[in-house]
Amino acid sequence: MALIRRAGRSLSMLKRSSLFHGKQKKQRQQPIVSPSLPNLTPHLPSSLIRLQINTTYSAIPRGISSCSFRSSYIPNRLLTSEAQPKLPDEGIDDTQFLDFPGVKNTAFTCDLKFVSEKSEEVPCYRVLSELGEPVDGAKLPQMADALALRIYENMITLQVMDYLFYEAQRQGRFSFYMTCSGEEAAIVASAAALSNEDVIFAQYREQGALMWRGFDLQEFAHQCYSNSADYGKGRQMPIHYGSKKHNFVTISSPIATQLSHAVGAAYSLKMDRKDACAVTYFGDGATSEGDFHAAMNFAAVMEAPVLFICRNNGWAISTPITDQYRSDGVATKSRAYGMRSICVDGNDALAVYSAVKSARSMAISESRPILIEVLTYRVSHHSTSDDSTKYRSGEELSHWKVMRDPVVRFRRWLEGNGWWNRQKDTELQSHSRKKIIAAMMNAESMKKPPLSDLFTDVYDSIPTNLKEQESYVREAVAKNPNLYPSDVPL
Amino acid sequence: MWATSARRAIAGQSSVTSWLTQLRNSMIKSGEKVRSFSSGSNQLTVRDALNSALDEEMSADSRVFVIGEEVGEYQGAYKVTKGLLQKFGPDRVLDTPITEAGFTGLGVGAAFYGLKPVVEFMTFNFAMQAIDHIINSAAKTYYMSGGQISVPIVFRGPNGAAAGVAAQHSQCFAAWYGSCPGLKVISPYSSEDYRGLLKAAIRDPDPVVFLENELMYGETFPVSDEVLDSNFTLPIGKAKIEREGKDVTITAFSKMVGYALKAADELAKDGISAEVINLRSIRPLDRATINASVRKTYRLVTVEEGWPQHGVGAEISASVVEESFEYLDAPIDRITGADVPMPYAANLERLALPQVEDIVRAAKRACYRQVPQSAAA
Predict the structure, then answer these.
(1) pLDDT over 80 at A21, yes or no
(2) What ipTM was reported for this prediction?
(3) Which residues of A are catalytic?
(4) Which residues of chain B register pLDDT less than 50?
(5) Are residues A414 and A280 in the same domain?
(6) Which residue range forms the structural domain that includes residue A465?
């Protein structure tokens, strides 16, 4: 009731007042204010002049006056320093419009109330039960048997490769490895929902995504053995894969740096109007890094088509999520940045596929970033340098390993559809094992990278100081060949 | 100078020496040509040199874009990017939220993908919040990816001391970035340097750290017509002999080149002919030019604003000792900023930075003249 009366009063004041001085009547300029703002100053003197805004890029100041840069600045400030006319009897009530620049949609309150630290519950999306059966009411994504079987075969090959490479590290064949046990569905099914044009910026546990793209077992072995066929020319630790032709950016060790790189690539894709997005994978621990917050905020501000896929597996080496963050999960964080998100059961391959596919098309068509929290469990140790039995219970580990295997869950769904059986499974396992061992033997027998690879690619063209250093080394080798390691070709 | 003729006799002629002599002679010849760039009738401020270089490179290559805080609407914190937003639009000139880590990482990611970002830091002191991206993401990626991913990015902004901005706005980062393989590090002095080297940096396929100086933005230098040509670039990694001399070599970069030139004028009154080398490039460091000059003058004074330990002067000193030890007639003197965080008070700030008198005294010491060791109060 009070509002209607107030509006009526403002309107009549406007009608009565002449807003423009005599000589400027010709330039009958309407006050330009943002459509969401009402007339803010019905109570100010009618001799106030409102001038049109000229520049297109400048921020439109809200409030009393907006000035044209060309016209002289009428002393509005003098006017505002006059005593205001007496305000209407109703006084200022709670529904008075809030016009601070920092916030868009909110209202005043006179209740001293704090916003709770507990966020609204974010439901976790899944479509298959633990037994691999469609959940009541679930709408399964369209997935032909060929695609489903390809996903499954990738997951099995990935498991076998992880197992054998882990053993190889234990035998001293290479120095380091990280498996992704327990997270196969999260990684492979999400990669399956992308197109080959989408650029992937991974953290370190996503070899499944690279395998999906077509990086073959031999290429994986070459990288881990750091031999002359390694695309990284022997410069990176094992598992730091990278392949330009597969649109998979070389793994970088510092955590979460890949997030802002992905936003940069997404920005380029957006400018090029490509039907592709950038995708970045990271763990729950990475959400503590400064780069996470910078990248999330930036992606939202720039409206960049990027998918932030967080593998929330509960552990960051030995740090459980209770010591990592206090929010309830990761998906809830996106709201603070003005970004859309979803929480998915990462051990349900179908749900992961469905969510990522949907997010991808939203990201590209609406040019927006999306955060996808994929809940899973890290069955593996953090890496070959870690023994997780030191910080978690055997029961917890064996529960997730045995009872909650995502690959088995998907296999049950395949078997339920009649697309798979035990015999095929045994054959696949044995076939993968043979291929991987052959790849490893081949990689082991290859020569190591040559000496020249020590000095190239520091810059686009090799600088004189490095040429000199290389020639010193070669001279020294020529003089003392017996001191030079035999497995390093020149 | 009885020592010099004896030393020449002892040193003899080695193939390296004769190569260096040839190099020196060709440097003198090219130095004459190079010096002509700075003797034209056009006057150009450093700010305009940068602005015109950015403008031309952005017009020539649509992959080049500028990103940083206040670069667009505000026309640049120091007005270096003035007019660029109006000319190229918000797609090419990006104003960012306050996150150095964010926009540097974003720039590096865009460079991975094929664009050519020019990332502006309000000062390189703030770039420390993004230094992981500069070193780990930009400098090392071409090498670590086996040559698959190149990073054609330029990081630019004011470096070193300004006036009355105290410790967190006054650090010189030349030595830190200069030690990192994979980066190219440039520190120009005159408008010709700024223009030619920024254009070269933007065209370079490697990541470049371009260290400017806030107090030089308003300085005017004469430039020739060639400098104003849109294809004018200077080679990265070559120093310039700003002033020929025969008694002592003074190396400097950025603002200190001006101080060294003034010191050379002072020294000339006392009959000491100083050769002033404008390094232009911290990495790669033009060791050949420096050594050739020392082999001519037998004395060296290095000048920098930054801290003494592990500084640029330390590297130059080591290089000269490694390559031209037998030519030295006096110990190498490093003139550097004081080993303290920069104070604010004007009198203390003056004491914490090299002044012309310090350079003059060091050069005289190198020439065996009697001088007081410490700074006058």
Answers:
(1) no
(2) 0.82
(3) 167, 253, 382-383
(4) 1-13, 30-34, 377
(5) yes
(6) 452-483
